[in-house]
Amino acid sequence: MFDLSFLEPERKTLKIKRSGDTILETAIANNFPLYHLCGGNARCTTCRVFVSDGLAFLSERNEREKTIADRKGWPKEIRLSCQTEIFGNVDVQRIIRDEEDLKNITSETKNSKTGEECYATILFLDIKGFTSFTESSLAYDVVFVLNRFFQEMSDPILNNGGFIDKFIGDGILAYFFLDKTKLQTSQLTLEDAKRQMFVQALRACFRMFDQLQKFNAYVKERFHHEFEIRLGLHAGQVIYGDIGHSDHKSQTVLGDTVNVASRLEALNKKTGTKFLISDEIYQFVSDKIQIDKKILTKLRGKTERMAVYSVLGFKEKDQILELQRSLELAVQLNPNLARDFYIHFLDTKPEFQKFFQNTDMESQAKKLLAMFGKTIEKFGNLNQNHIELQNLGKMHEEMGIQVTDFAKIAPSLLYALEKSLGDRWSAELKSIWETALGSLVRLMGKK
């Protein structure tokens, strides 16, 4: 018959009585200590094991195990012993071996990540000049300004499909990752998916420099101070999971890729640059970005020199970045942009006036501008934004505005943008906006 071996680190081999017995049944029959707090009824995860060898000789996950595994985000190698049947020689490792392990495992929530590997882009940001600000400012002002800074810098990351890992002092660790499930269901090749992810990360970084200009104007006016930021961007395999004390865990990324990104950010100080990317990223986007210089360096902890690049911006106009920057400029030049839109819209489409008879139009214009601004800022992450747009479409339908009417707002928005931007408005920019508004209308009307 078959063998079930536990690697503890010393191998403990158990004989399986019958083909089809579960891992837990085999452990109990051989008096081998394997936690199973719920009695082997798939109502906890304490009996789970990591399969080192022989995964093909195990039963497929049944519905009870699959529900737990999907909820917990387990890789295929982690199996629930009470539900997993054995049909060949298998090597496993217990995940819970003592009371401390038990405390750690039972603290997990349904959103906990137990550890997985993925390909990701890692972003490190640090503020230059913040120490001098803390030394000359009140504690309240330091915290207030830092929180305002984190808000301004985090939005471009989140709006372009990234995630905030943590705030480290006055710095940010963030990441963009390849979603294996979405990649399998999309038409993209692995190379195209990486390129798309890198462009999203780069766009987020360029937008952060835009946000820094606004932030500095705010800080200079109120606190007579300005800041600079330094960024490092690298990509590769990372380990992702919940790390920390059983009562205080947080999801984080680990590995050499994270260390390299951190050292690239720090290298800016030595090279007099602001934004460095690794060759891993550059080889995919070299045709899309402008670089200031190429630097050959030996990073701490590395035996070989590596090429890194100081990035200035995109070579050609990035349509999403153009949308974001042109709307921001339009509002800056014309704070009454939304009011101009409504005047034009209701003049040219008088049949819609009935929907606004009891509406404070000044307040309505502010709401529109806030909503529209957020929508355009999130254009780099439409996968997340489409639900909000669908809800917006449903809200308008409940007001009596039909899906077929959504496209009628576009000419008035284009009018307001052209009026606001003046000479800066061009046929190319108009085309970009027409395409974007078409996408918004389609998503709003999607069921």
From TrEMBL:
Top-rank taxon, per record: Bacteria
Stretches assigned to the Globin domain: 311-447
Topology with respect to the bilayer: Multi-pass membrane protein
Record's signal peptide: none
Subcellular location: Cell membrane
Keyword Phosphoprotein: no
UniProt cross-references to InterPro entries, sorted A to Z: 2Fe-2S_ferredoxin-like_sf, 2Fe-2S_ferredoxin-type, A/G_cyclase, Adenylyl/Guanylyl_Cyclase_3/4, Beta-grasp_dom_sf, Globin, Globin-like_sf, Globin/Proto
Alphabetic keyword roster: Cell membrane, Heme, Iron, Membrane, Metal-binding, Oxygen transport, Transport
Residue ranges constituting the Guanylate cyclase domain according to the UniProt record: 121-265
Alphabetical list of Pfam families matching this protein: Fer2, Globin, Guanylate_cyc
Primary localisation category: membrane
Chain ranges of the 2Fe-2S ferredoxin-type domain: 2-98
Record has Thylakoid as a keyword: no
Family from the record: Belongs to the globin family.
Name assigned to this protein: 2Fe-2S iron-sulfur cluster-binding protein
